[in-house]
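step: validate -> pass
step: tokenize input -> pass
step: predict -> running
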Amino acid sequence: MEIKNLDETPAFMTKDGSEIRELLAHRNSVIRNQSLAEARVAVGGSTQEHYHARAEEIYFITAGSGRMRIEVEVREVKAGDAIAIPAGQKHKLWNTGHEALRLLCCCAPAYEHSDTIITES
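step: predict -> pass
step: emit ->
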């Protein structure tokens, strides 16, 4: 049985500027076809707009609030919201709240830097 604890998982920065703690993926577990990570966006911060050529994502907001854009649609998001992001769809997330925006990111196939295409400078 594999169990990973968030507080014991080291953070790294993704290409889009998110602080990520990868809980389960092929790099650190028996999981082969998906990944689960927690991402954090600082107050006033945002990710860079990007898309994933292969991976579809689910964002599940666990704390804070923000604004999500997928292609041209923009919506306010908050703790408890689950967001579907199809592969190939440009997306960006802003923290518009007063605390760190925290979310779980599920990717299938697993997150890879090489599958992240930045679409803004």
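step: describe -> The chain has one domain: 11-113.
step: cleanup -> pass
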